């Protein structure tokens, strides 16, 4: 009977290989199978194993106890299987099992070493493995002679490193010892090339990830394994844990003690994760981290310790980095000038206290967890990344470049970036205001003048202003722009605040600083800058808009197009070019009579945002017109980033949508053909958008869970903001816009953003007379209607 193929490292270059048929965790079915085999001792082992996994205190002691218990069963099975074979054989445990680090769902990596043809061992190997498979273990194995295993280690580094932690389990101890000695000798001979290979091993993530990969991620188990392998290479014998030989002068007794503590914490967190997930799992997610005893700040300390000691072993950090003296301002700025490439040194210095004289409290922030929307790092690591990105930004961003020369490091920006989240030492809202004093203190400690230190405080206090205003307010409202300008008060400070905003957003995550949001923030900054200019009255938006109108009229000449341009509101021209305004007017002028085949028309152009298009639709107004257009766009496979709506003459409307592809498919001519077909059918009343969008939701379900959150704001003169945060899905904007229309309101503008599968949309609404609704009862009723509709659809999806 053929054996099943394995995926384990021990399956490489072997004569017979295997994998498990189910997970290795305890299960009643596995126990039942053991009993039906008539093997009481194996059934007893399963029962003892279940009890150990459920009752043991997670950590190194538990992994060793589980390994020792497994040794008893595996060695007994092996001795019984080979008892009458007449073959000289020995059984090795490799990898984590060899290191006595078994977790509840770990693989068992086994190698049977034989002195003759491995094919002769087929029956006893089956007798060893089948009971383990039937008991639910995932077993990778190989059967080789000593020379064959040595050849496998020569050909494959993974097999070699797994054997460097190997140990004897059963059979001929001399045979297994010869094999382990030969492999260790091979590693010793290939020391230079092997260490080079280990040093180039890809490492992903950060020890400060809020959701760390405890096995393959930076600072995780694989990094400890590399230190162990380096020790084995230098000793010339298999080992189970790191030793001083891995890095003479770096790994002393204190460091080895720290590594032992780190191993215990990592093993404890992984054990708890296996036990709760009931499967192999390496990523400690946010929820698990909060409930796992060893999953908080102490775990980040250990991951960082492993990371730093490995970098020092590789020569990427120095002894002085591990034992730093307090840094001067010059030390800090010289390192920052080199950008994100120096983050490992910066993180090491911050965690080990070297920055405390310049940025008091930064060491505590390095392991402070404040999980929030889209954040991926601890507070301190996020702050350091923000600082490094802020220094690099002028190389690629024109706004950040203005007012700064190459290599210039404004102390106000450095202090603010380092301390912008210092207020998060206390949980809850208001961290920006709480962090202001810390930024002032840091700037003064760096030698800044009092006015520079005050500027650092303002930057921290207002570091959310630009991002929140751009995404949640109507930046075509001059009052909104003027309020932003008044809170900043200085054009140079505005540039620094923009730089901090961009760097903070990029450090948070790619979805936080996407091209669309970046374009909104830049537009807001440009308008606020104009408002702060000495030669501009207000924000200059009205004068600029009238200038666009005049240029558009010159392009249009006389006639219907010019009439439409003359009657358009000033707000319409804000953010448009004369050519765009003229094209829009021609679109409206070209509409046929209401009810005709030409009662709607669209125009497509490239948007300023990379990968996005601008779709302008002219049609006749009706209740729910915006919802109808949003629904047809969603049905065409497009995602709406933003939208504006303006009234035209004779009961017409002009709605402009900025869109991207909602799927992996690229936007092409067929996209616009589909959109035109849907638009015509919808306007003529031949398309049931609710039914069609429900069908699309079944094909593209939401990638996020959670309830919808609805709120209203009245901070704009021209419109009231309806903020909706909900799981993103096809037709979401249609459903919200439809409820807005049913409540008797109209939509003037939409800002739409998606982060980690959740939509954060702001609808700027007006009443039938074009005024901002203010009645709390009406707004509360609207919020309730939207919330109920989204909940109803979520239940039925």
Describe this structure in words.
This protein is α+β, with helices and mostly antiparallel strands and 797 residues long. It has four domains: 9-189, Beta Polymerase, domain 2; 196-323, Nucleotidyltransferases  domain 2 (Four Helix Bundle (Hemerythrin (Met), subunit A), Up-down Bundle), CATH 1.20.120.330; 326-507; 591-796, no CATH class. The chain is built from 35 helices and twelve strands. The strands form two sheets. The chain has an eight-stranded antiparallel sheet, sandwiched between helices. Strands 3-2-1-4 form a four-stranded mixed sheet, sandwiched between helices. Strand 9 and strand 10 (720-727) form a beta hairpin. Helix 11 crosses helix 13 (297-314).
Strand-residue fraction?
A: 5-15%
Number of strands: 12
Unreliable runs, pLDDT <50, ≥5 residues? 1-7, 11-38
Spatial order of the strands forming the largest sheet: 5-6-8-7-11-12-10-9
Shape: globular
Distinct helical segment count: 35
- Largest sheet geometry: 8 strands, antiparallel
Domains, number: 4
Query: Mean of the pLDDT scores?
Result: 90
Name the features.
about 800 residues, Beta Polymerase, domain 2, Four Helix Bundle (Hemerythrin (Met), subunit A), eight-stranded antiparallel sheet, 35 helices, about 50% helix, disordered N terminus
């Amino acid at each position: 009977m053929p054996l099943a193929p394995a995926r384990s490292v021990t399956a490489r270059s072997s004569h017979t290989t295997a994998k498990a048929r189910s997970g290795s965790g305890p299960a009643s079915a596995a126990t039942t199978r053991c009993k039906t085999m008539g093997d009481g001792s194996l059934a007893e082992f399963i029962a003892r194993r279940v009890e150990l996994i459920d009752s043991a205190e997670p950590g190194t002691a538990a992994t060793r106890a589980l390994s020792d218990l497994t040794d008893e069963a595996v060695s007994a099975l092996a001795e019984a299987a080979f008892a009458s074979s007449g073959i000289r054989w020995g059984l090795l445990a490799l990898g984590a099992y060899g290191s006595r680090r078994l977790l509840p769902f770990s693989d068992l990596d086994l190698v049977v070493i034989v002195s003759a043809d491995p094919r002769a061992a087929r029956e006893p190997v089956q007798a060893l493995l089948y009971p383990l498979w039937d008991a639910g273990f995932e077993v990778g194995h190989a059967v080789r002679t000593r020379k064959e295993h040595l050849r496998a280690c020569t050909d494959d580094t993974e097999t070699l490193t797994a054997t460097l932690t190997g140990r004897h389990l059963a059979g001929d101890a001399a045979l297994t010892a010869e094999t382990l000695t030969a492999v260790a000798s091979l590693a010793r001979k290939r020391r230079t090339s092997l260490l080079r290979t280990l040093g180039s091993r890809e490492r992903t993530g950060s020890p400060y990830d809020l959701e760390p990969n405890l096995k393959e991620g930076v600072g995780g188990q694989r990094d400890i394994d590399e230190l162990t392998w380096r020790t084995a290479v230098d000793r010339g014998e298999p080992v189970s844990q790191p030793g001083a030989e891995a890095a003479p002068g770096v790994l002393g007794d204190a460091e080895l003690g720290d590594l032992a503590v780190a191993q215990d914490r990592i093993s404890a967190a992984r054990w708890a994760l296996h036990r709760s997930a009931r499967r192999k799992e390496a990523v400690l997610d946010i929820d698990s981290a909060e409930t796992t005893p060893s999953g908080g700040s102490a775990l980040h300390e250990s991951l960082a310790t492993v990371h730093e000691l490995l970098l020092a072993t590789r020569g990427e950090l120095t002894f002085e980095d591990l034992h730093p003296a307090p840094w001067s301002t010059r030390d800090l700025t010289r390192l920052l000038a080199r950008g994100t490439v120096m983050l490992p040194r910066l993180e090491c210095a911050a965690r080990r206290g070297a920055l405390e004289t310049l940025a008091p409290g930064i060491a505590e922030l390095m392991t402070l967890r404040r999980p929030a929307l889209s954040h991926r790092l601890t507070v301190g690591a996020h702050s350091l990344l923000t600082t490094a990105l802020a220094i690099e930004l002028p190389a690629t961003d024109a706004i950040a470049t203005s007012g700064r020369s190459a290599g210039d490091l404004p102390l106000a920006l450095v202090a603010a970036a380092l301390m912008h989240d210092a207020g998060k030492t206390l949980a809850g809202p208001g961290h920006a205001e709480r962090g202001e004093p810390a930024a002032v203190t840091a700037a003064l400690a760096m030698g800044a003048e009092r006015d520079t230190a005050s500027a650092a405080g303002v930057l921290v206090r207002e570091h959310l202003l630009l991002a929140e205003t751009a995404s949640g307010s109507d930046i075509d409202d001059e009052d909104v722009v003027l309020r932003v300008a008044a809170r900043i008060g200085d054009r140079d400070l505005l540039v620094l605040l923009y730089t901090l905003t961009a760097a903070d957003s990029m450090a948070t995550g790619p979805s936080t600083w996407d091209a669309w949001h970046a374009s909104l923030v830049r537009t807001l900054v440009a308008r606020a800058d104009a408002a702060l200019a000495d030669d501009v009255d207000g924000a200059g938006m009205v004068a600029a808009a009238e200038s666009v109108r005049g240029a558009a009229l010159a392009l249009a000449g006389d006639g219907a197009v010019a009439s439409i341009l003359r009657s358009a509101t000033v707000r319409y021209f804000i953010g448009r070019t004369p050519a765009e305004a003229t094209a829009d007017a021609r679109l409206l002028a070209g509409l046929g009579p209401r009810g005709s085949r030409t009662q709607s028309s669209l125009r497509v152009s490239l948007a300023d945002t990379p990968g996005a298009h601008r779709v302008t639709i002219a049609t006749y107004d009706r209740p729910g017109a915006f919802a109808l257009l949003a629904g047809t766009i969603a049905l065409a496979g497009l995602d709406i980033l933003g939208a504006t709506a303006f009234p035209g003459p004779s009961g017409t409307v002009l709605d402009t949508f900025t869109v991207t592809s909602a799927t992996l498919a690229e936007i092409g001519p067929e996209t616009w053909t589909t959109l035109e077909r849907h638009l015509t059918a919808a306007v003529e009343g031949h398309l049931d958008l609710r039914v069609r969008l429900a069908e699309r939701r079944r094909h593209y379900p939401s990638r996020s869970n959670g309830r919808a959150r609805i709120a209203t704001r009245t901070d704009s003169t021209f419109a009231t903001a309806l903020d909706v945060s909900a799981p993103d899905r096809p037709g979401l904007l249609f459903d919200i816009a439809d409820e807005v229309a049913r409540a008797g309101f109209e939509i003037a503008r939409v800002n739409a953003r998606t982060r980690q599968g959740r939509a954060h949309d702001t609808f700027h609404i007006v009443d039938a007379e074009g005024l901002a609704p203010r009645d709390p009862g009406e707004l509360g009723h609207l919020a309730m209607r939207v919330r109920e509709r989204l909940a109803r659809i979520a239940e039925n999806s």
